[in-house]
Amino acid sequence: MNKHTPISIHFIAVAVLACVLPVALQSPILAAEVLIFALAAIGCNLLLGYTGLLPFGQALFFGAGAYAASLSAIHWQSSMLPCLLFAILAGGLLAIAVGYLSIRRQGIYFVMLTLAFGQLGYFIAYLAEGITGGEDGLLDVPRAALDLWIVPAISLDSDWAFYGWVALVFVVSFISLQRLVDSPLGSVLQAIKQNEQRAIAIGYQVRFYKIAVFAFSGIVTALAGALYAMLLNFAPLSNIDIETSEVIIFMCVLGGLGSLYGSIVGAGVYLVASEMLSDIWPRWMLLLGLLMIFVMLFARGGLWLGLKLLWQGVKGYGQDKKVKKVEVSHD
């Protein structure tokens, strides 16, 4: 799939994935977790894969979304849509502030700034026990009902109902972001990644575009954090820890940079492998580390590009066999 692929094809692909995933995994909880972290990895991919900015503070937006939605549900008894709206606003505004300050530097200094902001957010959450629960996190986070005003409220307490809502949010978010990266804005982001000085010389307001992509990344990552808190009925402090940023970057790079589908593959492989291998071997992370080394050395496009090349090879082999059969029949 490329930028010329009709959006209807993308819709069918992710809709089919959302329908098949819980059946294949035999768990709506694990399937929901895959889609949620795929959203978080997509948020990272917008910065790293499409714009060339390596962020080590994605957990800040993830945790902010989790806390905003959880506090809204606990203290104001908000329904699902207002909870997610609070999370999106928190993530978006925070990302604009972080992006505005971080893009003043480049290279390693940019990376360290994002890391510093992430750690700053972690210690603020750790110390603000009266708001965030501190080290214990926010407990008993309810799965807010879906109240559409024109119909009776829909309870999302059951795992299957909540998965259905996560799948709907994921499909809508994915299609919106796919349109974004296929738009002229996405082309500008690619130009900034390939040669920032040339993009400036052409006349693009590079700083504005970087802040804009930070905002989009913060919004989708905070949305993922909000859904994850409701999935767990718990907003742990670890949501905003540097380890969460590392996991999100790992998924993004493992699946493939510059592809939204790669983020889905990366999240799926990481979470399914961790679920299966953790019961077999306590040092399962070693295997994922070896897989990452293999990807970085021999498949730099990530697992998604590897799957695409494999599919093209199978198609080419099948076409070659058909051509040979036709040639033999003519002889």
Folded structure, characterized:
The radius of gyration is 21 Å and the shape is globular. It has a single domain, classed as ABC transporter involved in vitamin B12 uptake, BtuC. Helix 2 (28-51) runs parallel beside helix 7. 76% of the residues lie in helices and 1% in strands. Strands 1-2 form a two-stranded antiparallel sheet. The longest helix is centred in the C-terminal third of the chain and has 29 residues, at 302-330. The two termini are 38 Å apart. It is mainly α and 331 residues long.
The level 1 CATH classification is: Mainly Alpha
Identify the CATH architecture. Orthogonal Bundle
Q: Using DSSP, what is the number of strands? A: 2
Largest sheet: 2 strands, antiparallel
**Count of discrete alpha- or pi-helical segments spanning 4 or more residues:** 14
Strand order in space, largest sheet: 1-2
Estimate what percentage of residues fall within beta strands.
Answer: under 5%
Query: What is the number of independent domains?
Result: 1
By CATH, the topology is: ABC transporter involved in vitamin B12 uptake, BtuC
Average pLDDT rating: 90
Termini gap: 38 Å
Report the order of strands and helices: HHHHHHEHHHHEHHHH
- Secondary-structure-based class equals mainly alpha
Shape: globular
Unreliable residue stretches: none
Helical residues, percent: over 70%
Give Rg in angstroms.
Answer: 21 Å
